[in-house]
Every structure is written in C-alpha cells, then in structure tokens.
Design goal:
single chain, 105 residues, mainly alpha, 4 helices
Length: 105
C-alpha cells in the first residue's frame, strides 16, 4: 500500500508544480487552490509512505515521478520543447525509479 500511495503522491507533485506555474505568483484563484490542495495531499502521501519505506528511496521516487510527469506534461502542452536528449534523460529518471522500487520489492 505504501508504494501505491507514494506513486499517487508523485503524480500529485506534478499536479501542484504545474498548478503553481499556472497560478502566476499565486494570483489566480483556481490554480492556487489546485496547488494548495495538491501540495497538502502530496506531502501527506509522502509522509505516510515514509512510515514503511526508507527516506531516501521514498523521496527519490516521489521527486522522480513528479519531475518526470511535470516535464512530460509541459512537452505535451507545448510549453517546453521536445528533444531526443530530454526524452533520454527522462527515461534515465524513470529507470532509476524502477530500479529503486525493485530493490524494495
């Protein structure tokens, strides 16, 4: 259950990071609310997962999922350019997350 919650929390990290960018300095109401709710739920999930998972592993997986999804979303919406190197580096992050998970199966 901790791994599932950690993965959902990583997805929520991408949600709040994207919402923060769209909030224009917390001046737009809806993105600011999405940011705040996403942040609280993401952090709560990370804290819960850390009860059973090692701190370093849980944090690295959480950040890896959030960072990767944030960049992929930005590329999909056209706010960030796509390049072979970016895709390669994102695949490396995903490989690291999968590797860390496999060590704690």
């Amino acid at each position: 259950m901790s791994w599932f919650i950690l993965i959902v929390s990583g997805v929520l990290e991408a949600v709040w990071a994207t919402a923060l960018g769209r909030s224009e300095g917390l001046s737009r109401l809806v993105p600011t609310v999405v940011f705040a709710v996403g942040l609280v739920l993401s952090m709560a999930g990370l804290a819960y997962a850390m009860k059973e998972l090692p701190l370093g592993t849980a944090y690295a997986v959480w950040v890896g999922i959030g960072a990767t999804l944030t960049v992929v979303y930005a590329m999909a919406t056209g706010t960030e350019t796509i390049s072979i190197l970016k895709v390669l580096f994102l695949l490396m992050i995903i490989g690291g997350v999968v590797g860390l998970k496999s060590l704690h199966a």
